[in-house]
Amino acid sequence: MFRNIPVVTKNLLIINVLIFVATWVLELQNVSLTVFGGLHYFMASDFHFYQFLTYQFLHGSFTHLFFNMFALWMFGCVVENVWGPKKFLFYYISCGIGAGMMQEIVQFVDFYLRVSAQTPDITFAELFAVGQQLSHQLNAWSTIGASGAVYAILLAFGMIFPNERIFIFPLPVPIKAKWFVCGYAAIELFMAVNSSGDGVAHMAHLGGMLFGFLMIRYWNRHPDARFNRSSGREFFQRWNAKNARGGSPSDRTRRSGFDEPTYTASTDRDDMAFNARKKQEQEEIDAILDKIRKSGYDSLTKEEKRRLFEASQNR
Length: 315
Prior knowledge:
There is one protein chain. The chain is built from 13 helices and four strands. By secondary structure, the chain is mainly alpha-helical. Helix 4 packs across helix 5 (about 85-120). The two termini are about 25 Å apart.
């Protein structure tokens, strides 16, 4: 079963577990990885920019680790199989960074409200001066965990398969993925407003989902901005063909005396053939994904699985 987990999801699971074990072993030696790798408030003396990445791989308890990794395995396998490893990894890390940025904003607002409660007319310059004076005390504000990135993966699953029915304990009946995601987001928003001080970065969870939503919306509106190698290959093919025809368009224009390059029609035909081929390939992949939504991944034939795998490797 572990062999069937996609490569990025598998390695994320392994890295998180190994770092959790390392954290536990080092704590026995009175060394805390949270001090170095946890995301501190940006006015704290222990804050470093690399912590936007490292905090995503630290967890405070086995329960914290287990539920994050279970959700990553459950939904990440499907999303990575659809998107491919490079796009999936970029999305995961970026949304984790976005979640950290949201947490920093929330902490800044909290800090401002606390200071302004004592000094109502404080300016932003004075606020930063106070933060510098309290930088060592502000080290207590730190964030760890992969929850922000995992919530973004949950959102991606809901947006890719909105009508897929999933079983969620303790509900007795399956619910559609889109309602599950909306319900989770609503619960997090409610907890963020009504459960301040519970030690859970609810706004970071919502921040991960927000960044994921914006990223997916951008990709849907710009389908050519994909994480594949075809665009790069196409660029160099055109570049080589252009040089083979006798140099740059400006050189051709100067030599021929015309305002437009003489090979435009040929290039347009190449573009039309390329677009037609890509459209046909996309239609085939869409049909395979529809089959997965209706009957599950195991219903695919060996050829369909091969086509889906090849498409994921080219993304």
